[in-house]
Amino acid sequence: MSNDFNFNAESQQTAAPANDFGWDSEFDFDDPDEFVILPPGEYGYVVRSFQRSHYDGGTAKDGHTIPPCPVAKIQIGIKTDKGDVVINDSFFINPNPINTKKMSGFFQSVGLATEGSKVKMAWWSDNLVGMAGRAKITNRKYNDKTYNNVSHYIKKG
Predict the structure, then answer these.
(1) Which of 17, 24, 55, 135 lies at 20 to 30 Å from 44 by C-alpha?
(2) Dist CA 31 CA 99 (whole Å)
């Protein structure tokens, strides 16, 4: 087996454009342990990313059983005076009312569903990333650390 790589090492030494990082770029230190913990309340957000995943099944924190199912993982971004806050949230895609209520709230929040109608899950929408909505944010403790948590999504209108 050969350890030869087919690339030009000299081209890797070239300067990166001003807005990109190169291998030898410098940046200002940003403390990874310093997260902005939001005071509980309602905040506007923008959907930053969406990812497909799968849950193998198990027991939720409140004791109910969650069967194996697809999971939609999103990141929402909230702009604050102290910087941008990113919150991860997950949606178990199954017919349990706990899950359908959360998904309904999210889709109403970004304007993709209306109360009293059938909800067409638009996870694959080209427009989902970048859509804006509002959410009630609370704090939760885990392993002696405090995290931002989406309590629920607030419908538009």
Answers:
(1) 55
(2) 35
